[in-house]
Amino acid sequence: MNNRDTGKFIAEMRKEKGLTQKDLAEKLNITDKAVSKWETGKSAPDISNLVPLSEILDVSVVEILQGKKIEKESYQSVSDEVVISTIKKDAQARKRSVIATASIIFSLAFIAVIIFFSYHFLISAPADNDDKIIKKASQYTSDFFEQNEEIKITKSVKKSKYYFYLLQGKKGAVMVMFESDKIFNNRIHPTGGSSVKNQNEIALYCTGESYETINVFFGFDMTEKQYSYFYRGVKSTKEIKEKYILDVIIDLDDSFTNAEIIYS
């Protein structure tokens, strides 16, 4: 990490966000003098500040360490370069010291933590930002949506740790299931989904783990006012509101029982 490059990058990203040094300092619960020292290259952010700083500036931790923006396609190779560079510098600085081995292990562990946090940041999106959720969902379902296609969220449902979104484009609609990220509590990442291409058609997405069963009904441009299904031997009828269907059933058991749509 080059303190001068990192400081210049932090200053540029801060200004893009319309933040003063004082604004950024308050968000991080530090002094504006500390931010000033970062940006002039006199010091570097402490490890405890890297993740919250990356969230505020909407960049990855690796980009902060590199002092520049990194394209998604080259992220892994750049991450490897950061690891290799850090190991070499660390080894050269401590190769004559009796604590060289311990220092290298610590450096590797530190880098592994950075990459781990950065990975979770990159695969997730803020739970309260529809634009970034649409972007992440369209990346996850790139075989369905065309590049630069206008996509909108027509309906959303939150249940337990899961978030469900019905997105509509030119060729139909996609239901994408997101899950709360295990590292960043305010971020979510896509874990599954399915599509439906015909209007007035009801699709059913079924998934689950060893302790839960998830059934999701979805559809778009519906002309019917209601639909029915069987679940665990019981017939249920649901009202269709605003021409869209996004209904979720989550059972916390290991029966893996899938619902069945009743077609008229």
Q: What's the topology here?
A:
Blueprint: H1 3-16, H2 21-28, H3 32-39, H4 47-57, H5 61-66, H6 75-94, H7 100-123, E1 125-126, H8 130-140, E2 152-159, E3 162-168, E4 173-180, E5 187-196, E6 203-209, E7 212-219, E8 226-231, E9 234-239, E10 245-251, E11 260-262
Antiparallel strand pairs: 1-5, 2-3, 3-4, 4-5, 6-7, 7-10, 8-9, 8-11
Provide a short characterization of the protein structure.
By secondary structure, the protein is of the alpha+beta class. The chain contains 8 helices and 11 strands.
What features would you describe in this structure?
The chain has 264 residues and is an alpha+beta fold. The protein contains eight helices and eleven strands. A five-stranded antiparallel beta sheet has the order 1-5-4-3-2. The protein has a three-stranded antiparallel beta sheet with strand order 6-7-10, with no helix packed on it. The longest helix has 24 residues, at 100-123. It is elongated, with a radius of gyration of 24 Å.
